[in-house]
């Protein structure tokens, strides 16, 4: 009696779990298919090589070059800024503070909390900062908001890979008379380089896909980005605005943008993953 | 520099948090000899070695009292540039840890830190020190390949060459052969034998036979205390303390 | 030469310390900035009465947040109800039942799902979920809806939070030592009994953290929700009613906020509320986690 109940329970949950896995995979497939089916017909050379034409914001021809270039400029700028600000912090946490340091643990907690803050809040905060700095919605403002958004991701990611650098490597460098700065910047960075690079890519992907943080701060325009102080379009914003219009021709541009954005981000995260795998192999000597 | 002893430790005490790992160590390490620190695992051998070149203070929660002198220089004196102290004592770890760069850059790393920029001088240094460890003939045509591609035995000799390139007085070796195969171990031991004229070598080992083969002078540590120290012959053949006799005869380990 | 290196070390250390401090202060600055911007409104009106008021008429200076708070809770709650069981079942299967090969095949797919930007989820929601709810689900229940409603938003959000919860749960479960499973199995437990009594118990604090993370993600999600939730500032009565979650409120009205008095302060207060809830939640979950972990060991 007892035996058979155990068997029934086992089988029941096993089936339930398998169904869950299949369902999750089907959903993934469904999403990708939807984006592909709508995006592929819309995405052609004209789409990626021209700016929207034929009218202010609701022009029915042209492409999404404004959003592509805007996304690239904005994300690259923000990633660079976050990297420059984040690397010293990540190095400081591990190279200058010991592994059991309370201060470091506290800082890590703060960063984890920052990581969890919704991007719309970063957008609102970026907006407040912009007003204080006397800026209006612009490429620079968008960069600022996205840089703040990805800073915690950047720092914690780099921090995790830097923590994997073996203790003995530090000892080797110290024993040769290297200072902590020299050890950090000449040895630790090199050892962790692939991991750092993949973190940067992950942050880049996150920044590129986020719309809520640039909604107030980047503005939106049909024109190509020309200056740091001019408004700029990005792919996620293009998707959001153009899908909301009642014109099928404009919606086409949203589908094309969605497909392009998805492809870009999948490629970026794929490269990041590949780097991490390689890196793992290198560490286990 | 002259003098019979190269390192003097006096009343050295080390604590890891509450744990008292080295107790009142007072000892002098002879110059131009191979000194072996022996004792069962966990007795503080590595800690003693690391207290010489101030590597201990890079760890958390470590407290150290007492003094260490390198020749006339007080290692722990306030205001001493710790990098210069460490430069005078090369370290060889249990496992080789080549820096993440090429073979050439590994050896040139230390000299570059200390201000040697001249390409030709660096080339010389790299060649000389690789010669000293017998690695030159094996790697001369692939100096600019990553150091991690060498075999583990070669890596360890590279680490030795890297340490020698900053012209230390002392080589601190922490069980330098424990990760190596017998053949590679032998090459390291050979290196030590012909390096000891120019350098004082302090090595930690848990292999008694290795200590017998190599060492001129022995320190026996047990539970954080220096039980006995003396010339190798005396320590192995006529130890004064019962504990030492039991350890060298393998009764305890 | 020597001096220079010592100086370099000292200056470098302080520089790094300074930058680190700056990044930590960022959290404080964020609260401060939003608080300052919403201060005028907080001075005029009582926070509590705004939170419970149902009237949102910015032009008359009435800012009642209750519909938005209710909308957020409905949508997030619905999403968690859908996502948590599915995510836990999937993670358990991948960790405990699937072969190593299947697991290494599925893990990148899960991460891929996590990497898709939220606007793309929104597009998917508009194209598939909204018509599905409008034409199939609602008529089934005998209800009429435009499709832009709580159910659609919850479905899209659930799909978005799935990969987050699965990813973390999987990591937590795989960290349970093998020996624990082996000792249970060798006592004659079935696979499922081992999972239920040993693995899930051991992993409980971590699983809790995974779900809190998923909740935070769903709670603050803006773009996907704004595109499918309907955005009507009324307290919803059923899952087929439209909702207007807090993040959507902020995102939708930034354009006109400078032209209506106190409107900007009201939106910044909404952002502050969002921030406060997320902060409170992550601090609370950390405390609970610490207690749990202490008791578990």
Gross geometry of chain B: globular
| Radius of gyration of chain A, whole Å | 23 Å
Low-confidence stretches of chain A: none
Main beta sheet strand tally, sense and closure of chain B: 6 strands, mixed
| Helix proportion of chain A | over 70%
Question: What do we call the CATH homologous superfamily of the largest domain in chain A?
Answer: MetI-like
> What pair of chains forms the biggest interface?
A-C, 79 and 81 residues
Tell me how many strands of chain B there are. 10
Shape of chain A: globular
Description:
The complex is a heterotrimer of chains A (285), B (253) and C (297). Chain A has 285 residues and is an all-alpha fold. Helix content of chain A is 76%, strand content 1%. Chain A has 2 domains: 41 residues; 236 residues, Orthogonal Bundle (MetI-like fold), CATH 1.10.3720.10. Chain A has a two-stranded antiparallel sheet. In chain A, α4 crosses α6 and α7 packs antiparallel against α8. The longest helix of chain A is centred in the N-terminal third of the chain and has 41 residues. The N and C termini of chain A lie far apart (53 Å). By secondary structure, chain B is an alpha/beta fold. In chain B, 36% of the residues lie in helices and 26% in strands. In chain B, the strands form 2 sheets. Chain B has a 6-stranded mixed β-sheet with strand order 6-7-8-3-9-10, with helices on both faces. In chain B, α4 packs across α6. By secondary structure, chain C is an all-alpha fold. Chain C has a domain of 180 residues: MetI-like (MetI-like fold), CATH 1.10.3720.10. The termini of chain C are far apart. The mean pLDDT of chain C is 87. Chains in contact: A-B, A-C, B-C. The interface between A and C is large, with 79 and 81 residues.
Task: List the main descriptive attributes of the protein structure presented here.
heterotrimer, A: 285 residues, mainly alpha, MetI-like fold, 2 domains, two-stranded antiparallel sheet, globular, B: 253 residues, alpha/beta, 6-stranded mixed sheet, 10 helices, 26% strand
Short characterization:
Chain B is an alpha/beta fold.
Indicate the topology.
The complex is a heterotrimer of chains A (285), B (253) and C (297).
Chain A: H1 2-42, H2 45-49, E1 52-53, E2 61-62, H3 65-96, H4 102-116, H5 119-133, H6 139-163, H7 167-175, H8 180-209, H9 235-243, H10 248-283
Antiparallel strand pairs in A: 1-2
Helix pairs in contact in A: 1-10, 3-6, 3-8, 3-9, 4-6, 5-6, 6-8, 7-8, 8-10, 9-10
Chain B: E1 5-16, E2 19-30, E3 34-38, H1 45-52, E4 62-70, E5 73-74, H2 82-87, E6 89-92, H3 103-113, H4 119-132, H5 136-139, H6 152-164, E7 170-174, H7 182-195, E8 200-204, H8 208-214, E9 217-222, E10 225-231, H9 232-237, H10 242-248
Parallel strand pairs in B: 3-8, 3-9, 6-7, 7-8
Antiparallel strand pairs in B: 1-2, 1-4, 4-5, 9-10
Helix pairs in contact in B: 3-4, 3-6, 4-6, 6-7
Chain C: H1 2-44, H2 47-52, E1 56-57, E2 62-63, H3 66-97, H4 100-115, H5 118-140, H6 150-174, H7 178-186, H8 191-220, H9 223-228, H10 246-253, H11 263-296
Helix pairs in contact in C: 1-11, 3-6, 3-8, 4-6, 5-6, 6-8, 7-8, 8-11, 10-11
């Amino acid at each position: 009696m007892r035996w058979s109940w155990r068997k029934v329970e086992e089988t029941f949950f096993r089936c339930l779990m398998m169904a869950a896995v299949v369902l999750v995979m089907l959903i993934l497939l469904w999403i990708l298919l939807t984006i592909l089916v709508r995006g592929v017909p819309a995405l052609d050379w004209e789409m990626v090589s021209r700016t929207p034409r034929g009218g202010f914001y609701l022009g029915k021809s042209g492409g999404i070059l404004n959003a592509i270039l805007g996304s690239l400029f904005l994300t690259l700028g923000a990633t660079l800024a976050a990297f420059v600000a984040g690397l010293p912090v990540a190095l400081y946490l591990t190279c200058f503070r010991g592994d059991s340091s309370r201060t470091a643990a506290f800082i890590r907690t703060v960063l984890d909390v920052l990581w969890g803050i919704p991007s719309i809040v970063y957008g609102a905060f970026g907006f407040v900062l912009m007003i204080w700095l006397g800026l209006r919605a612009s490429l620079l403002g968008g960069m600022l908001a996205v840089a703040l958004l990805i800073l915690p991701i950047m720092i914690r990611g780099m921090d995790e890979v830097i923590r994997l650098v073996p203790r003995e490597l530090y000892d080797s460098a110290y024993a040769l008379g290297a200072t902590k700065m020299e050890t950090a910047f000449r040895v630790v960075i090199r050892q962790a380089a692939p991991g750092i690079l993949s973190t940067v890519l992950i942050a880049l992907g996150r920044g590129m896909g986020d719309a809520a943080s640039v909604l107030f701060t980047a503005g939106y325009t049909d024109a190509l980005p020309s200056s740091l102080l001019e408004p700029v379009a990005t792919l996620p914003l293009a998707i959001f605005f153009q899908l909301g219009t009642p014109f099928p021709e404009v919606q086409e541009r949203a589908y094309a943008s969605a497909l392009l954005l998805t492809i870009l981000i999948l490629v970026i995260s794929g490269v990041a993953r590949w780097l991490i795998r390689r890196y793992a192999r290198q560490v286990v000597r | 520099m002259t003098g019979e002893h190269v390192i003097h430790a006096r009343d050295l005490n080390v604590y890891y948090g509450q744990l008292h790992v080295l107790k009142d160590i007072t000892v002098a390490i002879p110059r131009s000899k191979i000194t072996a620190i022996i004792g069962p695992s966990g007795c503080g051998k590595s800690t003693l070695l690391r207290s010489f070149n101030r590597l201990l203070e890079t760890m958390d929660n470590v407290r150290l009292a007492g003094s260490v002198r390198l020749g006339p220089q007080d290692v722990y004196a306030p205001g001493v540039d710790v990098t210069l102290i460490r430069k005078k004592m090369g370290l060889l770890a249990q496992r080789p840890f080549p820096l993440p760069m090429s073979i050439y850059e590994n050896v040139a790393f230390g000299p570059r830190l200390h201000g040697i920029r001249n390409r030709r001088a660096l080339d010389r240094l790299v060649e000389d020190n690789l010669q000293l460890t017998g690695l030159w003939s094996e790697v001369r045509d692939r100096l600019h390949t990553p150091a991690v591609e060498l075999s583990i035995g070669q890596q360890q000799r590279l680490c030795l060459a890297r340490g020698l390139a900053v012209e230390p007085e002392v080589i601190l070796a922490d069980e330098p052969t424990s990760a190596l195969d017998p053949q590679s171990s032998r090459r390291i031991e050979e290196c030590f034998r012909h390096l000891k004229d120019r350098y004082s070598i302090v090595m930690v080992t848990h292999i008694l036979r290795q200590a017998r083969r190599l060492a001129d002078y022995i320190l026996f540590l047990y539970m954080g205390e220096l039980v006995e120290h003396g010339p190798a012959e005396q320590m192995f053949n006529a130890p004064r303390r019962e504990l030492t006799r039991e350890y060298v005869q393998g009764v305890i380990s | 030469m020597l001096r220079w290196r010592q100086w370099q070390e000292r200056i470098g250390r302080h520089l790094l310390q300074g930058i680190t401090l700056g990044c930590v202060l960022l959290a404080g600055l964020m609260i401060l900035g939003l608080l300052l911007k919403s201060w005028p409104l907080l001075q005029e009106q009582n926070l509590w009465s705004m939170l419970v008021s149902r009237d949102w008429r910015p032009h008359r200076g009435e800012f009642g947040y209750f519909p938005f708070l209710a909308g957020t809770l409905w949508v997030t709650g619905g999403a968690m109800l859908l996502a948590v069981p599915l995510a836990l079942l999937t993670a358990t299967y991948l960790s405990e039942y699937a072969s190593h090969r299947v697991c290494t095949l599925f893990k990148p797919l899960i991460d891929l799902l996590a990497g898709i930007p939220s606007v793309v989820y929104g597009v998917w929601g508009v194209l598939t979920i909204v018509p599905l709810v409008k034409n199939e689900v609602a008529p089934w229940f005998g209800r009429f809806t435009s499709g832009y409603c709580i159910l659609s938003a919850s479905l899209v959000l659930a799909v978005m939070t799935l990969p987050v919860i699965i990813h973390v749960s999987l990591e937590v479960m795989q960290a349970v030592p093998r020996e624990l499973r082996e000792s249970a199995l060798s006592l004659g437990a079935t696979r499922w009994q081992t999972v239920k009594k040993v693995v899930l118990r051991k992993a409980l604090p971590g699983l809790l953290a995974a779900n809190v993370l998923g909740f935070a993600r769903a709670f603050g999600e803006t773009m996907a929700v704004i595109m499918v939730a309907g955005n009507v500032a009324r307290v919803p009565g059923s899952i087929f009613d439209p909702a207007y979650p807090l993040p959507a409120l902020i995102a939708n009205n930034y354009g006109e906020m400078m032209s209506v008095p106190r409107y900007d302060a009201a939106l910044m207060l909404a952002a502050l509320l969002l921030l406060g809830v997320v902060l409170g939640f992550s601090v609370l979950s950390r405390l609970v986690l610490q207690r749990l972990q202490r008791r578990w060991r």
